[in-house]
Amino acid sequence: MKKFFGYDDSLDAWGVHGVGGALGGLLTGLFASSAINPAGKGWAADGNAWQMLIQLYAVVGVFAYSALVTYLILKLVDVMMGLRVSAEVEGLDINLHSERVGH
User: Fold this and answer.
1) In angstroms, what CA-CA distances link 10 with 23, 72, 81?
2) 39: three-class secondary structure by DSSP
3) Domain assignment present for 40
4) Residue 36 in domain
């Protein structure tokens, strides 16, 4: 199923795990409190705005690591068996997942 930005993500892995994970990581830095975790130095809610920068570094690091490892795995799969399906295949989301637009 084509999405707004032209990528094909029939299982919505990016929307659920990528966006949801990044948002959760950033909001943890915003709302977590040292009242709940006294071992912490305080978070943005406790007046420690630097924690948001630490959380942002962590999210960017995970994105960079994930992009690199995904690229290497895709290159390996491409060399071993190829990444493309034949031109006769209408779409993997329809043929393999029985996903239909509007259902």
Assistant:
1) 21, 22, 21
2) coil
3) yes
4) yes
Query: What is the four-CA torsion angle of 74, 77, 83, 89, rounded to 10 degrees?
Result: -130
Burial of residue 29 (number of CB atoms within 10 Å: 0-12, 13-18, 19+)? buried
* pTM of the predicted model as reported, rounded to 2 decimal places: 0.71
In this predicted model, what pLDDT tens digit does every residue of 36-83 receive, in sequence order?
888 877 788 888 888 889 999 999 999 999 999 999 999 999 999 988
How many CA within 13 A on the CB side of residue 98? 0
Percentage of the chain with pLDDT > 70?
77
Number of domains in the chain: 1
Which residues span the domain enclosing 78?
A: 13-95
> Is the residue at 21 inside a domain?
yes
Distance (Å, rounded) from C-alpha 31 to C-alpha 52? 10
Alpha-carbon distance of 2 to 30, in angstroms, equals 33
In a domain, 50, yes or no: yes
Q: Any idea which residue has 């830095």 for tokens? A: 29
